[in-house]
Specification:
With 287 residues, the chain is of the alpha/beta class. It has two domains: 6-118 and 278-286, Aldehyde Oxidoreductase, domain 3 (Alpha-Beta Complex), CATH 3.90.1170; 125-275, Alpha-Beta Barrel (TIM Barrel), CATH 3.20.20.70. The chain is built from eleven helices and twelve strands. The strands form three sheets. It has a six-stranded parallel β-sheet. It has a four-stranded antiparallel β-sheet with strand order 3-5-1-12, with helices on one face. Helix 8 (208-215) links the parallel strand 8 (201-205) and strand 9. Helix 1 (6-25) packs across helix 3 (57-67) and helix 4 packs across helix 5 (145-154). It starts with 5 loop residues before the first helix and ends with a strand.
Length: 287
């Protein structure tokens, strides 16, 4: 699973904020320039209007600092805390022009990240009686992946690979093109050796034959069982005499996750965490 390097993470967040501000701000906030005197100051209060696991507080602080370092950012809650609606969770003081410049970006991020964190926490709590970890996937919003995966962590989930570059994941198309699962695995092992790489190696299997081949490769970190029903997974687990870590995916959501958790698997990966999310209602109001 992916671990965020602090320096890399900081650069990625700064890059995201700059791109998002450029998209929204352009040549300037024309309405604010027309209606609000330059230099006018004030305070904006942030309200959460739904019960949720809040996420995006630290990101919002970074957005404020990026837009205007003179802004005063004071929030009473931290990422990952439970908030009951309706609640004022903090305030931003300083230039009103600066506050209105960051308002939409900050709210968009907090609303979606809080939705993801809330959903993730709910699922994590559901499977807590079992030793199962909830993983995200690459089914994320383009150019917003780092924030969505951050929200999964805040909610108690675990990040799968961040992109194509930090893990080898042999899937059905690789197996088909390589001429079989054995060829695909051996090719990845040669690639790692030639390039002196230690990236994790995960392989997806579609039947018992592929599972049997994959489990006997010591170098494989995890076997992904995709689109199997729980009773089919249990049949494969009975073949796992090498003790490989097992991940299940494919059509798993809140309605059926307990069936999968009970099978004895180690991980459940869910695209549903990030691509079927309802944003939390959050607002920013100037006093």
């Amino acid at each position: 699973m992916t671990e965020f390097n602090a320096h890399w993470f900081g650069k990625m967040i700064d890059r995201f904020i700059d791109a998002a501000l450029a998209e929204d701000f352009g040549d300037g906030d024309l309405t604010s320039l027309a209606t609000i005197a330059k230099g006018q100051t004030g305070t904006a209060l942030c309200y959460i209007k739904e019960d949720c696991i809040v996420a995006g507080i630290e990101l919002s602080s970074k957005i404020c600092a990026r837009v205007d370092p003179s802004l005063k950012f004071e929030f009473s809650v931290k990422d990952g805390e439970t908030v009951q609606s309706v609640a004022c969770i903090g305030e931003i003081s300083g230039s009103i022009h600066s506050i209105l410049t960051l308002e939409r970006l900050m709210l968009n991020c907090m609303q979606r990240m809080s939705g993801i964190a809330t959903k993730t926490r709910h699922l994590v709590n559901m499977v807590s009686p079992y030793d199962v970890k909830i993983l995200d996937t690459r089914k994320t919003t383009p150019n917003f992946r780092i924030c969505e995966k951050w929200a999964v962590r805040i909610g108690g989930g675990v990040n799968h690979r961040f992109g194509l570059y930090d893990q080898m994941l042999i899937k059905d198309n690789h197996i088909q093109t390589a001429g079989g699962i054995q060829n695909a695995i051996e090719s990845c092992l040669r690639y790692r050796q030639v390039n002196n790489s230690q990236v994790p190696l995960v392989v997806e299997v579609k039947n018992a034959e592929e599972f049997t081949i994959a489990k006997d490769f010591q170098e494989i970190d995890r076997i992904l069982i995709d689109n199997f029903r729980p009773h089919q997974i249990q049949e494969l687990l009975s073949l796992n005499d090498t003790g490989k870590k097992i991940e299940a995916s494919g059509g798993i959501n809140a309605s059926n996750i307990m069936e999968y958790a009970r099978t004895g698997i180690d991980f459940v990966s869910m695209g549903d965490l990030t691509h079927h999310v309802e944003s939390v209602d959050i607002s920013l109001k100037i006093k």
